[in-house]
Amino acid sequence: MLSASNIDLYYGASQALQSVSLDAKQATVSCILGRNGVGKSSLMQAITGRHPIKEGTVTWQGKDITRTSAADRARQGIAYVPQGRQIFSQLTVKENLQTGFACLPRSQRKIDDEIFDLFPVLHKMLHRRGGDLSGGQQQQLSIARALITQPKLLILDEPTEGIQPSIIKDIHNVINILRNRGEMAIILVEQYFEFARDLGDTYAVMDRGVVTLSGNISDMDEKEVRSFLTV
Questions:
Q1: Are the C-beta atoms of 43 and 209 separated by less than 8 Å?
Q2: Model-wide pTM > 0.85
Q3: What domains appear along the chain, each with residue ranges and CATH number?
Q4: Looking at the DSSP assignment, which residues form a beta bridge with residue 23?
Q5: What is the mean predicted confidence (pLDDT) over 4-20?
């Protein structure tokens, strides 16, 4: 569904990505692994159109979207759950979910019951402010908000960061459900090795702005991959 090819990305004079390529296929979880600061989030910025790239191409469902705006990519079905959640703390849970309507035609602007099947806790907290939720609940809200947009590609940037184990398990189950439905591609950016290994179909390990290892999870050399995750 998505192919990023030979991406170069800069912040001023500093190069963050060097000839990075990534494919994401329908009904699969593509895992991006690596330490902090190696370019994982920069790659997501390139894919979602939030930061311009110097070289390379991004293709979505056979169409070149390299110069397409972030808003248009969202309308075409690319949803992003950013690192750190970035919910609206002063808005209620319901209002946070409704911000996802911006990508949808008016006839489709509704919160499906399926959202609350996946995240029952949010139904109980619809009228609470986002800032009053725990970190794990905010992460669930951030994922739910992305699902409101009815995406074909869901990008999750470090969804386990700072989250309690019980909610990590809930998020694991939700990702499994979404993948097994076969309707979307999922890109999972993670440092939590076991979480990514247990969910992923393919993996790419980044270091210093390049992809150093990649392949199918079933063929992964765990010891070698872990060597790129430890400090």
A1: no
A2: yes
A3: 2-86+151-227 (3.40.50.300)
A4: 3
A5: 96
